[in-house]
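quick one, two chains, predict together pls
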Amino acid sequence: MKKETARTVRAFAIELVIYAVLVIAYFFLVLHLLGQWLFQLEIHHRYLYAGLAILLIVGQAVLLESLTTFLIRLIRGRSE
Amino acid sequence: MFFPISGADISPVYLAIVGFLIGILGGFFGVGGSFIAGPALRLAGLDWNFAVGTDLAHIVGKSVVAARRHRALGNVDLRLGLIMAVGTIVGAEVGAQAIQILKRAGNVNFVVSVVSIVVYLSISTFMIWESRKTLSSSKGRSQRGVGKAAKSKKDYSAFGPVTRAIQRLKVWPMISLPASGIKAISLWMILLVAFVGGVFSGFLGGGAGYIRMPSMVYVLGIPTHLAVGTDLFEIIISASYGTFSHAVKGNVDILIALVMNTGAAIGAQIGAISTQYFAGPTIRLAFVPLPLIGAAIVIYTMFSGHKL
């Protein structure tokens, strides 16, 4: 049981490090590129911005959930 | 990091950490966590209108992550979630209209504060009584372990007799919820629970998961694990509606919500997976501090005059 817990914690720590690197890259690339465009959209096309905001947050959530699940499987070597 | 839409300068690390903490709470308890996210965004310097709208957008993302994980664990009743979303959206509109009426009467802050304190304290008191009584009973004791009982999602509640009486009410149309193990329940009862949750959501702000999750367990008789997962699924729909509405009014900085969601994606998964290791009554007992935190924040703002 303790061995299993230690394995889970280690896998989680590795996952966090990989995830953090990917998220930092995401901050600098995606948000920097999207920032000004979304800002202009929010000023001039409010309805389009509202719809796109939902698509972006749902899309990112699905992507991140898939990424974290993939990382867990990759690191632990078995399905969660 | 500068966010041009709201004009705020906030550390992305702070946002990710707040998202992470709220993600754990959301994944484990099936709540939006707006009672923490709202004040946390305000503390970071975001205007109140942006804090409310952006928080809703972040709730959508976090709920998608947690609901997908709960679905993989078999904790989501899609049929129930879709029906409840209708009642919640209608209720939220009614709650928002009630706020407008109170605003015109000029006593909105006092009334909303008193109502929220009474509601939060009532939920906490009731859940302490019920979960402790269930855990001390023989059926509850058998659920304390983290083995088969927690994984089977069978649930016992000291409030069970009242729940079964509600389920026996034959108000047409009756529907079955096989995923939740309910053979027949009135559609109106489900809509009523969702509507009341929606009214509180529109009236007090946030997703009102602190009312809807306990209501699903005690009134509809949904097992706690399924109530958590289904509530998250339902929140995706109702919070998306709220996000759209607020975004049109210029109250959503989606860039802030996206950054918060990077932390929430991890936190929500941890919270969702953790529910596997706890039985229903234990999750309900652990839920008790959440409404109390909400009440404490309201009491603080009432007496200090500072709006967190």
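The radius of gyration of chain A is 17 Å.
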